[in-house]
Prior knowledge:
By secondary structure, the chain is of the alpha+beta class. It has helices spanning 55-62, 82-90, 141-148, and strands spanning 3-9, 36-37, 46-52, 70-77, 103-107, 127-134, 153-161, 164-165, 174-179, 184-186, 190-191. Strands 1, 2, 3, 4, 5, 6, 7, 8, 9, 10 and 11 form an eleven-stranded mixed β-sheet that branches. A hairpin with an 8-residue loop joins strand 2 and strand 3. The two termini are 24 Å apart.
Amino acid sequence: MPELILFNKPYGVITQFSEHALHPTLSNFIVAPGFYPAGRLDTDSEGLLLLTNDGKLQAHIADPRHKLPKTYWVQVEGTPTEAALEALRRGVNLGDFITLPAEAELIAAPDIWPRTPPIRVRKFIPDSWIALTIREGKNRQVRRMTAKVGFPTLRLIRMRIGDWTLDDIEPGDWVRRTATLTKPARPGLRGRP
């Protein structure tokens, strides 16, 4: 039976197991031989990263043809207008491609862990949060989308991929579960470095 690891990747961690000269990597948090990331999460992004020991499941999760929805909580500079949110919902022309339509809504500031280092704060410019769900995952796509509609990303946390969610997994912690190609089957072992 395929297995998954749901990992809450902290800010500054590189999505690879091999050592890096400047940043911690997955090997600093996860000891699970035979598990490999199903997709990536930028070094300056946080949140849900899936790893699996099954190549077919890995391809299904990572391959954009399957268009698994990915939900992000995005802290942006300023307060997005309804027009900006509607632009995200329709699809944004980023120059090299036009994004697929997304789900986008303003949300209250979530009760989450502090980021280290903290985001930059501007004294006279407010910030706000958007829940943004996309069905693709090109390089730095969410950051490019919010910047294009006039609200640069300050903090980016992936909360969901398909049916798998971050739930109550703390930064640096992980949960191991059995899996199918559509959703996790049952809760499993919790792990910590």
